[in-house]
Design goal:
By secondary structure, the protein is of the alpha/beta class. It contains nine helices and 16 strands.
Length: about 350
């Protein structure tokens, strides 16, 4: 069947341009580095990326934790008018409200479209609107509500609560032609979606979203091609130096998710997965041969698992019982005890348990 011509999107996973990635930018220059990292994206008319660090000069971190991420205004030379930058994640307030406000100001000064965080809830939940040809595209970015959720009186991120997403999607639907929802949620290093993610995805599709994308797990997940749209349950890392020292074998395996939305809402959306491998500086390079086949096979395996809803909890538990995952969590919670005491560890553990049970 021939596909109608329509809107071409590219979605990528977590983008963190600090550390070795920033050093590479200073060494290579913005033009050369932009060519390298965005080459796998191709000619997409809109690129949706999750920016996993504030752009700030603030030195005081928000809380004493192991990983506090930041970047500088230099990285803005890597973005252009094709981008919608999502800010809803668990690191955008690592340097507090001031760090977030500096990020918003920096993006606004350069005219880079963004969504997902703001000075209050009204601003945080406001979608980015892109006009592409004759089409209006709305992009929402939201994050698990346990991470610095904005309120009517305080800055933060758009919390991915079912009622807020439903209301936001219903409000925007009459005003645009297409809607994409990008959600920072899930469990780090676990490729199987939680029940909460499944519910959020289903709700977004019911309310008119054509694409729902999840990130945060730092690994690739499966794809679900539903009648109403496409759900990506784990877009993985895209630019993310492992100078953090995370001993996780899937860290450097990523992808570009190219989607063509036909002009007719009843048409068939096309998905192309372009495998990438992150180099030592955390920059993506197109994978080929056996490495590309392995990445695609991994996505296909996770996608098949999604077809059996009743067995998903079993697959999820099996991933959590992997020795590698247990070691990572042991190190993580030991670090919380060292920095925040036993009470801080118990609070973090309870939040983690709630995430699994939802």
């Amino acid at each position: 069947m021939m596909l109608e011509q329509g809107l071409s999107l590219a979605l990528v996973g977590d983008v963190m341009l600090g550390g070795r990635a920033l050093e590479a930018l200073r060494r290579m220059g913005a033009e050369a580095m932009a060519r390298l990292i965005w080459e796998p994206v191709g000619e997409a008319e809109v690129i949706v990326a999750n920016l996993e660090a504030p752009i700030t000069e603030v030195n005081q971190v928000r809380e004493n934790k192991r990983y506090n991420l930041s970047a500088t205004k230099e990285i803005l030379d890597l973005f252009n008018e094709r981008f919608v930058v999502g800010l809803a994640n668990n690191h955008i307030l690592d340097y507090g409200e001031k760090g977030l406000l500096e990020t918003l100001d920096a993006l606004n000064e350069r005219g880079i479209v963004h969504t997902g965080a703001g000075r209050d809830l009204d601003e945080a939940r406001r979608p980015a609107i892109k006009r592409v040809g004759d089409l209006n595209l709305a992009v929402f970015a939201a994050a698990d509500s346990r991470w610095q959720a904005a309120t009517e009186m305080s800055a933060g991120v758009f919390p991915a609560r079912e009622e807020l997403l439903r209301e936001s999607l219903q409000d925007i639907a009459p005003q645009v032609d297409e809607v994409v929802v990008s959600i920072h949620a899930g469990t780090e290093f676990i490729s199987v979606p939680s029940p909460a993610q499944l519910r959020l995805a289903e709700q977004c599709l019911e309310e008119g979203a054509r694409v729902v994308s999840f990130h945060h797990a730092h690994c690739l997940g499966g794809v679900e091609r539903a009648e109403k749209g496409i759900v990506l349950y784990g877009t993985g890392n895209y630019v993310f130096p492992n100078s953090l020292g995370v001993p996780f074998s899937e860290w450097d395996k990523g992808a570009v998710w190219r989607i063509t939305l036909p002009e007719s809402c009843n048409g068939i959306s096309r998905l192309e997965i372009v495998p990438v491998l992150l180099n030592g500086e955390g920059l993506p390079e197109s994978a080929s041969g056996k490495q590309a086949e392995e990445i695609l096979a991994k996505v296909e395996k996770h996608s098949r698992r999604l077809q059996g809803r009743f067995s998903l909890s079993m697959w999820r538990l099996s991933e959590m019982l992997r020795p590698q995952y247990l070691r990572l969590n042991a190190v993580h919670y030991a670090d919380i005890v060292r920095r925040q005491g036993a009470l801080g560890m118990m609070r973090a553990l309870w939040q983690g348990v709630q995430t699994q049970l939802r």
